[in-house]
Amino acid sequence: MKPTSWRCPSGERLLSCIGLLLISLTSFTQAITFNPVPSPGLDLSALGRVGLAGDFGGISLYQFEGQNENGFNTNGSQSLLTRFPNGDFASLVSADACIRAMCPFIMKDGTLAGVVVGGNFTSLGGMESPGVAMFNPNTSAVVPLPGLSGQVSALLCDQETNTVYVGGSFKGENSTNALAWVGTTGWTNLPFAGFNGPVNSIAKASNGHIVFGGVFTGLGNATGPSLPDQQIINISGANITAGSSASTAGFSDPTNIVCKTSGFSGAGDTWLLADNTPGFWKANFGFGFQPTKLRLWNTHQDGRGAKTWRFTAMPINGIMNFTYVDLATGQNASCSSECPLSSDTSVKFQDFHFVNVIGMNAFQIDISAWHGNGGGLDGIELFQDDIFTYAINDFNEPTCAGIKIASNSTSTGPWTVTPSHQSSSKYLTAAVTGSTSPNVVFLPDIRQSGNYSVNIYTPGCLQDNSCSTRGRVNVTGVMASGSTSAGFSTEVFQTNNFDKYDQIYFGYIEAGSTSFRPSVVLAPSSGQDVPNLSVVAQRVGFSLISSTGGLNSLFEYDPSQTLINPSDFANSTFDKAGMNLGPESGVNALVTSGSTTYVGGNFSTGTYKNILAIADSDAKPLPGGSLDGEVLTMSLDRSTLYVGGKFTKATGGGGVGDLNRVAAYDTVKNTWAALGAGVNGLVSSIVPLSMNVTVNVPETVITFTGDFNQLLAFGKNPAVSVTGFAIWVPTRSNWLQNLNGTTEVINGALTASVDLPGGGSLFAGSLSSSQLGANGAAELSSTLGAFPVHIKPLVAQQTGAIARRDTNNKTASGVVTGLFYNNGGRNITILGGHFVAVGSNGSDINNLLFVNSSNSDTVTGVGPQISSDSTILALAIQQDTLFAGGRLSGNVDGGKVNGLLSFNLATASPNTQPPALGGGDVAVNSITVRPDTGDVYVGGSFSSAGSLECPAVCVFSTSAAQWNRPGSDLGGIANTMTWASESSLIVGGSLSIDGRNAPLMIFDAKSQNWTVANGADTIPGPVVAMAAANSDASEYWVAGTATNGSSFLMKYDGTTWDSVGNTLGSGTNIRGLEVLSLTTKHESSSLLSASQSLLVTGSLNLPGFGNASAVLFNGTTFQPFALTSSASNTGSSISHLFSEKQNVFTSKGGGLARGFIVLIALGIALALIFCMVVAGVVAERIRRKREGYVAAPTASYDKDGMSRIPPEQLFGSLGQGRSGIEKQSTRI
């Protein structure tokens, strides 16, 4: 535990930080570089068109080290970001909370000291950096700037003065809420002691002055109450010990003097030392404090008492200095190691005031001299000015002190006490479950009404190893009587690595009385998806604010001034404008453009509302009108000022309606313009960004982050669901989410950005990004491409953490499968799954769509016959008939559809449907057509087909239009099927035969028999994915989830099974397998030839890398291949690769597969025989011609061209040799 202290950092630590800054003062030569990964070298040429289907909103190929599939954080933590060459965002260093501001610290000589980063974090890049740090873009090193405690909201780097102006809600040096970092000197107090309220924005005006905007009413610092030393420190809960205590019964217990203020001496009320022996009295606390006054009651028991003593503070082990009133002279006196106590019985107690206010968590009083036969005490009390209320009620003011409205707290729920570790005090921790709703109510002892800054303190999560379970808390408070609702409500993130505090309220608080008590309530926020969520509660502090007055939310500072005179406020245009804003006003944003500074915030006067412009010597409303709600953020892009906040329209100046929290102001034309129809919630930050949108040329787009979940509909653009992030494209006057085309996709939050002097940019926020924005399906060649169809994104409610989406067939969403169909001049792409797409006629298409490339990419569906809650899981084509299977239901021409749909692609209409499948939970998982037949094999979860009992696998004969059961003894669920030959079908799933369970079965279509696959007992769970490893499928791969929950991946080589081992992490869900050819060989292995690689798709956890949606396996190692993202931030996956042509295999040695070799050999043999026969015939004809043979005459009645010859003449020459044959010929 560390004591509470506002002391500045040690000189040694500060000098080391300045030394690091000096090292970093080099010319900016090169931005962060990224290492490309080796190309996978896939050879897709034999497959024709290739597509990837899945549940994603964006997809990237893995091309650079550092790319990942991590979603954006929603627990409040953010990172410094930059961009990969392929457009994806890279996280450079992470903070444990939000980053609010950045600026490049360029010195007078042009060298870049680094980028100053400010926010609400306690660590950056793993280094303790409360509120502010320096980042070196050359080395990615983080240099803490120690000395602040609190949060930084605004930064301004001024090259002319080598100064960084810092504003926020913090304490540092001798200032509050405003401070300066000067060159390589370090923290420097400004000529004023900061402000009495938080600073939200800092800008440099055209006259070179620095303008501060925020919520303050004057310069100044926190102050103590008008009556100091009123808060009593609770000693009764401390661990009290003593040395050299008397052995007399009733006088040896050191706790006798705690909570004893009567001054009575006697057994049980007095603590005595042994006769004529020095000793000590010591108290160890579970919390830190900063005492301002010590009150001691000397004992007079039997003429004894303490005469001289000293006070040692711990853990610093320092002897404290005191001031006190000398009872003999009535004058102030001081003491340290030998402080006196009077033996006068008329002196009830004596007060000693600490000269230095020092943080401590224990102290010891050593009695070195005594009156009479020994020392002792009758009572002790400690006081402080700090007003704290602790969650652990034992740390609050003692009830024995007789205080009418003593500070206290109450807790409800499963709270437990957690040790203080490195924090200032012990604290409470609660595990939040669905059945619990813990809360803590803090009731402070406020004895003086006035303006206060209220801070809530949160212990760091590293010390108790709770970072993975921390989330958000909602803090509400009532600060004055007459209020029936909460006086304030705010949300605080508790994911900080180190101790921090957040300002939760600034304003008036009414003093407590018997009829009213100010209160603060802490409780978990709702809607958090954090596994094993935990919340902590430590303390709430209240600081009385005083100031010089004369200001209101704006202050203009001249850096050339060394002394601030409040009388000069009236000479400042900014200060005067602030005083005209009215009470309870605030400034949130300042932007300077030329000679004009735009001011946005929360204010309303008869002249302007929420936004104004200050130019030259006057403050004026914008000619285009004011805004009807609070402005929270502004950003200038050339001559356009983008504004975000809580407003809905512009008022006056012609006004513009339907702005809805975002707007653009033309600073040249002085007009407002709407951005679409706006968004449905507040906007908190605006950050410009460069993107390739319409052509391969970067253009500036504007990003908006806030508490909204929808882009409102306008014109022909429907409403679009989002997760608090939107991108406006000025050149298209539309949101990026409404534009069709091949563009990257970004989701998450951006809060700040800076352009680096050597080129490139840094960003602050938490993002997920992908090279290609495509919902559910993408084309794959050497690059990624989008199919010409608009599938709507599936946006779930934003949650507190990213989670991998469940990708089993029962909950599958997005595009699950696809086919390419080419026949009769038709070129159609078919996509199936669970989604909503937009047809060419503007209508919604559910779950099954057709993109007709031979008809201008017309997009159509199957119509309303299929239920919209269906999910297509499998597709197959037999001639012109599409069979679509899955969890689907509907009605076609009065016929029930359940599990399987038949659709005629030539006529674009449903066929007469096969009798519906039956069972408790019908799903078709796989469909395959038997080679060279019209038999369609359907596998899945069902028990019957029409009236035929036919579980797991059933055959639909297209020629007879009826179902047939293959074999008679199969049961269970079939997940995947592939043909090894025209009569041998391999089926994977959770199957059974004759009471025996098996994950893999083989069906002989000729004998109609099922057999368990060789070695199937070694497969640890149901098979969900399968791929042939050679042309005749005598070798194949299988994958699934074992009964213990882990994933498995195995290969059958025709004789035995080989497993790749436990190489994929927990949570892996393999959906698809495909063996692909390579253009560049790798080292051969027993599992794969040098010219092959296994593509594994699904939701994959790759140890040492993280999540991936597709990986390549070369027989020994896995390499990420494709990474996906989702707008819902709930995880994403790739289901399958589908191609236009069937895969063609080569052997391990690089030659043709065995089946092809046999066929080629047979063809060569037949060709040779044919050539020999032809050669023989030709030779015989030549011989006969040479020997003068002529054709024999034929009778007119011989219709066959041959006279009837007696058998003895025809066959009589057999065995006679050549001469016999010639003789016979002569006879003929």
General description of the model:
With 1228 residues, the chain is mainly beta. Among the domains are: 231-384, Galactose-binding domain-like (Jelly Rolls), CATH 2.60.120.260; 407-526, Sandwich (Jelly Rolls); 632-739, no CATH class; 788-795 and 810-913, no CATH class. The strands form 23 sheets. Strands 1-89-90-91-92-3-62 form a 7-stranded antiparallel sheet, with no helix packed on it. Strands 18, 20, 22, 25, 26, 28 and 30 form a 7-stranded antiparallel sheet that branches. The chain starts with 10 loop residues before the first helix and ends with a helix.
Give the topology:
Layout: H1 11-24, E1 42-43, E2 50-55, E3 58-61, E4 79-83, E5 89-94, E6 99-106, E7 112-119, E8 123-124, E9 127-128, E10 132-136, E11 141-144, E12 148-158, E13 163-172, E14 175-182, E15 186-188, E16 199-204, E17 210-214, E18 231-233, E19 239-243, E20 271-272, E21 279-289, E22 293-298, E23 305-314, E24 318-319, E25 322-325, E26 332-335, E27 339-340, E28 350-354, E29 360-371, E30 376-384, E31 387-390, E32 408-412, E33 415-418, E34 427-431, E35 439-443, E36 450-458, E37 472-478, E38 488-493, E39 500-509, E40 519-524, E41 534-537, E42 539-544, E43 554-557, H2 573-579, E44 586-593, E45 596-604, E46 609-615, E47 618-620, E48 626-627, E49 631-637, E50 640-645, E51 650-651, E52 662-666, E53 671-674, E54 682-692, E55 698-707, E56 710-711, E57 720-721, E58 725-729, E59 734-735, E60 745-755, E61 761-770, E62 772-773, E63 777-780, E64 784-785, E65 790-791, E66 814-823, E67 826-838, E68 844-852, E69 858-861, E70 871-878, E71 881-892, E72 895-904, E73 909-910, E74 917-918, E75 923-929, E76 935-941, E77 944-945, E78 948-949, ...
Antiparallel strand pairs: 1-89, 2-63, 2-93, 3-62, 3-92, 4-5, 4-61, 6-7, 7-10, 8-9, 10-11, 12-13, 13-14, 14-15, 16-17, 17-43, 18-30, 19-21, 20-30, 21-29, 22-28, 22-30, 23-24, 23-27, 23-29, 25-26, 25-28, 31-42, 32-35, 33-34, 34-41, 35-40, 36-39, 36-42, 37-38, 37-40, 44-45, 45-46, 46-47, 48-51, ...
